[in-house]
Design a protein that fits this description.
Elements: H1 2-8, E1 18-19, H2 35-48, E2 56-62, H3 68-71, H4 78-81, H5 117-128, E3 136-142, E4 145-146, H6 161-166, H7 168-178, E5 182-186, H8 188-196, E6 202-204, H9 212-227, E7 233-235, E8 238-240
Parallel strand pairs: 2-3, 2-5, 5-6
Antiparallel strand pairs: 1-4, 7-8
Helix pairs in contact: 5-9
Length: 242
């Protein structure tokens, strides 16, 4: 089932400004022609260690060039996979354990690997919880990497709503495969997409653009209420049933 899901990711929109990290090569920045296969393999191990076990889906907006573009895993940077954030309590084995993590960007670009602020904040909070990292699946409402054509692949842009909704079937497949019932939207865009699809979720602040402190507080509040055994969690006037 996971193999078929990863194959379905091949169906990214055929238009300028969208990069598919699992099925396309970044010829200027990839370490070799094997980079997409490495990213697919890492995504497979990441999801296989969580399918049927994870309790929460943390849904961001889209893949970024400093994160999933080179790792194949949403909100996860090469720096994390290479052990560069151990001082922050974030370990490579928090992401997956089945294979040795690999970078796919050229070392000349970033000797220690690319690092993504959002991914570092999210994984940092997960690492500090009483939950297992396998209790969380990180994904995006738009699963591929949208970039600015005029700036090249090492740039990011926010997808438009048409793009978000065009990939709705991918998101619904992921929810079905993982069996997750509890979904936390990181930011307004992913929350709107879930509403459009009729999927119940809880919205928390996106950590970018000065939102890190509020994100941390709202995320920790959710997990604290879960630990207290509350049936319903109330936050920002939204409700989620764990």
């Amino acid at each position: 089932m996971l193999e078929n899901f990863i194959k379905s990711l091949k169906s990214s929109p055929k238009k300028s400004g969208i990069f598919n990290p699992w099925w396309e090569s970044d010829k200027d920045n990839d370490i070799s022609a094997q980079a997409p296969a490495i990213r697919r393999r890492q995504l497979f191990h990441y999801l296989s260690e969580r399918a049927g076990k994870a309790k929460y889906l943390l849904l961001g907006e889209a893949i970024g060039y400093q994160g999933g573009h080179f790792t194949g895993i949403p909100m996860t940077s090469e720096r994390i996979l290479l052990g560069g954030h151990k001082k922050r309590g974030i370990l490579p084995e928090h992401v997956f354990t089945g294979i040795k993590p690999k970078r796919t960007s050229k070392a000349s670009l970033k000797p220690l690997g690319f690092t993504e602020p959002t991914g570092t904040i999210v994984w940092g909070e997960i690492a500090q919880t009483n939950f297992s990292p396998e209790d969380f699946v990180l994904w995006n409402a738009f699963p591929w990497h949208p970039f600015k054509p005029e700036s090249g692949l090492l740039s990011n842009r926010t997808p438009n709503m048409k793009e978000f909704l065009s990939s709705a079937d991918i998101l619904m497949q992921l929810i079905q495969i993982t069996g997750i019932k509890n979904i936390i939207a990181i930011g307004e865009k992913s929350y709107i997409v879930l509403n459009q699809l009729g999927v119940k979720s809880l919205k928390i602040r996106h950590p970018a653009n000065g939102g890190a402190t509020k994100f941390r507080k709202q995320f920790s509040d959710i997990l604290a209420q879960v630990n207290k055994g509350k049936k319903y969690i109330i936050l920002a006037e939204e409700t989620i049933c764990p």
